[in-house]
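Section 3.1 - Work completed
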Amino acid sequence: MPAEKILTLHPEGKAGVNIDKSKYDQLKNFIIETLDHTGPITYQELNQMGIDHLKESFEGSVPWYLVTVKLDLEARNIIERIPKTSPHQIQLKK
């Protein structure tokens, strides 16, 4: 039986990508739990934490999947970029 897929969204309306739902859920949970715990952080910090936390248990490129799921969560209004931050920071949407 093929793995269940999810078509991700993009905040700028660009085409999303089909990825395994299990990988999507793993990254979505990681991003939400991390931002809930840390508050606003830079994308670079989130990416490094993702690599450190998931490298043993995740099959595939953590940075590629992380940015894909991050953009999807932005498009779904679950997380947001904080305006006028450099490097840009993200947080859970209030």
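Second construct:
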Amino acid sequence: MRAKKARRVRGRSREEAAFPVALPASEMPRGYPKMLSALKKRIGHERQRVAFAANTAMIVLYWDIGRMIRQHQDRKGWGSKVVDRLSQDLRNAYPDMKGFSPRNLNYMLSFSAAWPDASILQRVVAKLPWRQNIALLEHLKDEKTRLWYAQETLRNGWSEPILTLQIESRAHERQGKALSNFKAILPPPQSDMADQIFKDPYLFDFLGTGETRREREVEQSLVDHIQRFLLELGTGFAFVGRQVHLEVGDDDFYVDLLFYHLKLRCYVVIELKAVPFKPGFLGQLNMYLSAVDDLLRHPEDKPTIGLLLVKSKNKLVVEYALRGIKKPIGVAHWQTKIVESLPANLKGVLPSVEEIEKELEDGK
């Protein structure tokens, strides 16, 4: 009996130590009981709605709690200990509800401050899970950028790890940046959609090393990591095949990578080069697009689009080279992700960017 009692005492001590010590109710500032009562009423009213629209109602509730606390802090100068006491009182009032820890209440404060526009909250932010919203708060300070990632998360269904990966790879700076002739070749709205789908640069952080690095080996590595490759390409790409055979006359040709885009409703031919851009690459890709249109394209499909991925490019040279091309083509460069973003225990284990690029150049 003594041993069991001692374990229970130690258990309570550990549990109590996990949370900050709240001030006694008698020491709380004037107006606190009224605000606590209002919050209890607000939370109780929302519980039924949470049962039917759990996520949206919860996010709006968190925003409201943060707003109410912030208003009292701004007007009456309440300090952090108020949040600690509020956390304890709310958890005592609603022991079956989670989310009222001091840390989460502080997230609610930051959340309400980050999204002051209630219309944006209702239209976009409240439709995202709380973990995704926390990731947006922790990684992004600029409201415009944060809204871009919120909209893309809602549109693409990104999980919290995928959202974090997209933020770390600065997807907002790369989306829609590929050089192309889409506006001159494709009719709207397909041209606008194609412009937004392709990015520059593409980050292939999953590339390993080998004794040599030729284009075929990079290509094989992309196929070996097809899920990561599709994630980098973006939503809507369906993998068709690698080295897809095209017979033109009596000659055989092979497309590096062939995809179908579900929203554009067309094939996408990707040609991969481990060297800087050369205008002649476009002539080859242009011919592949014509062949795919004739040999593979269904009558209801839109014209096939080409994407040329190179190691580097001169923007002006690419723009000049695209002028005479009659098929829709985008040009972007690819690179590996910087090792500094890896956990400290992995640094030095994986090759550096310079080592990978040297292998690519040596293997031409």
